[in-house]
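As agreed, record copied across for absentees:
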Amino acid sequence: MLKEFKMKKVLASILPLLFYIPISYAQDGTVCQTPVIKIAGPRQVVFNYNQDRCNATDTFDTPAMAFKDANGTVHLFSGIAGSYMSVGSSLDTVRRDCSRPYSNYEPADNATAASFDNWKWYRSPWTEDGVTIYSLVHNEFHGWSMNPGANCPSNDQNACLFPSVTVAKSTDSGKTFNIVRDASGNVELGMVTPYAYTPDGGNLHKQLGVRAPTNIISRMVDGKKYYFLLAANRGGMAQKGGTCLYRSDDVSDPTHWRAWDGNGFNVVVNATAYRDANIDPRQHICTPVFKNDPSSWTYNTVLNQYIAVVGINEGGEGFGYVFSNDMIHWSEPQLLMQTTLKAYQASRRGSNVVGQTYPSIIDPQSAGLNFEYSGSNPYLYFTRFNPKAGNWHNRDLIRVPLQVSCGS
């Protein structure tokens, strides 16, 4: 009993420090007007597919994201359906935990888009106490996989992919996650397009929907704590394509997410024609804050600016970054690293061509439990697609040190 009492006293003194998140510095300090981010060292292998995988399908198919549990253990999200987490005492020591894969990832209903219960990728973890972990889920309906004659006559997989964002929750410090459902058993919605799925993307012949939310960042606004994230909106109909900004005052309740409409966070983003026959889609349209698809973001304490990592596809190919001091007005993309994803996609087996995608910035020294901050020396994480040799899961997770400074 004495040993147990002493342990409780130690935990009581440590936990407040572990959970403290200095949100105030997200609003203080001189804003750097000329941010400079450079690669500052050699690449490091965080996960080697051939050596570290738990099974043949264990791989990285989303940007790396992380959180700490109540014991201070770091969990590195990989997100792909059926894969595993990497855990350790720090980001420098995480290793694959093969005891528990992501659960409930397969489609409960692969035949309809209306269920929002299709293929799932877990992303955007957030925790206040290290025990209850909330996660947003990138959900995909694949129109070509079930009844393609009706759902995807063109067999164009891009146009027949219908993405949305749903919600998952863990109550055991991230060991298992379950999709959140309402009292009627329906999947709770996070961010969705108000329009129903249209075979082949309708007359637009393009992918429609909301996809790939970033990690979550918190901030105090007028004495109240809010939560923010970015997500790519594919556009279509009245919706303009681009990256939209979302805010919630309660991450535990999916219905609280709202989108920026150009004047405020007024857009209800979980409305869908599948559940409201009288919906006016024009009332559920967000105003993009920048064009490029986001991958992750942090608040940088050196620059006193928000930094988002984006893909650059115009005039070249690479990972880029944009910055903002208010989350609304963003800079033009700056190149951070050249990539060869297009060359990889066009390559044949045996060509030895690699590709890179899914970038994210994570700082091992970030305060709090959710790695929402970065300083002068964070890391750029990304997935490396190894040369094609018959197994598309053969991917490694790489990180490279960065130097962040305010230029002249």
